[in-house]
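Before relying on records like the one below, remember that each one covers exactly one chain. Contacts with other chains, cofactors or solvent are not represented anywhere in the record.
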Amino acid sequence: MFMMPDKPKIMSRPPILITELMPDQKVWKIAICVINLWIVKERNGQQHVEAIIHDVEGHQIHVVTRNHELDMWIQTLKEHYTYMVYNGDPRINDLLLKVCDNKFKLLFNGTTAITTIDMLEISLHKFKFKPFGDFSNGAFEVDRLYDTFLDQISSNLHLTFQQLLT
């Protein structure tokens, strides 16, 4: 009787968290959700896609793509969709204005692959509220972009309330 030899089993590497990325690490995979996506117009007129993504635990990182891959990333990435991302180039985030607290940014390059997945474990949004007292006490970082829409809502409600009283 002829028996087939056991085939070697090839197992995919397990996904990691965004916090586990290191600058010299080029091969990895992470399950992510795109929470914000925008197009940046460069001084030379070219454009590229940037995004904020988070993993299953809500850790965020700023993503930058290359301008010659603009069309591909516009077609591939959508806000509030979950993906499995493979490979890329983690770098120190040396931008003057940081859009999230991660000390790294992630460059999606020619080795980056991405597949759409339905992963309910990754929420579409993780709120990270900062107490108003931190702002009034100066307990915040000046190189972060903070949303001020609540201040606008508050002042609009105040104006509306004042109009009701008069």
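The domain at 18-116 is CATH 2.40.50.140 (OB fold (Dihydrolipoamide Acetyltransferase, E2P)).
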